[in-house]
Amino acid sequence: MVALALDLDKRRWLDIERVVLWIFFVTLGCILGDELKYLLVTLVRSSASVNGVQLLASSVALWLSNVLLFSLAYWRTDRGGPEARLNQPQTKPDWVFPHEEDTSAPCRNPTFVDYLFLAYWTATAFSPTDALPVRHARNC
């Protein structure tokens, strides 16, 4: 981020940032998967050293980490990321939020809170959220 602020050639640093963030997302996703495996093994084996409160606290922490991971991933990937959304507001969306369809709203660009909401409801509900994924039509 410091390099982006100081350098005039932002495209190169944005590419480096994108690669580093994807490595971060994949690494954190693998860590969360390993933690979930450990939690399930501990739950099935039911050792005396782990009580129900510890299992509940661990599962809530794992769920919150999952929500944060996916909200960051959604925020970074939708419309090319925050830099592209700021500089090119007409990019094609991956998700359409309800407030974007409201023409009377002064600011219709999604913020990180919108992606946090999307990740929360995706991880919580067994139904679709109000932010709909968009499939782009190909030119034939």
Annotation keywords:
140 residues, mainly alpha, two-stranded antiparallel ribbon
Question: How would you characterize this protein structure?
Answer:
- The longest helix has 36 residues, at 10-45.
- The chain has one domain (2-133).
- Strands 1-2 form a two-stranded antiparallel sheet.
- The protein is flat and about 55 Å long.
- The chain has helices spanning 2-6, 10-45, 52-77, 82-87, 112-124, and strands at residues 95-96, 132-133.
- With 140 residues, the chain is mainly alpha-helical.
- Helices cover 61% and strands 3% of the residues.
Short structural summary:
By secondary structure, this protein is mostly helical. The protein is built from five helices and two strands, in the order H-H-H-H-E-H-E. The protein has one domain (2-133).
Radius of gyration: 19 Å
Mean pLDDT: 78
The helical percent reads 55-70%
From the spread of the alpha carbons, the general shape counts as: flat
Largest beta sheet: what is the strand line-up?
A: 1-2
Helix/strand order, N-terminal first: HHHHEHE
The number of helical elements comes to 5
Outline the low-pLDDT stretches.
none
Beta-strand level of the residues, as a percent range?
A: under 5%
Main β-sheet: number of strands, strand sense, barrel status? 2 strands, antiparallel
User: Structural class of the helix and strand makeup?
Assistant: mainly alpha
- Number of separate structural domains: 1
Separation of the first and last Cα atoms? 39 Å
Strands, total number: 2
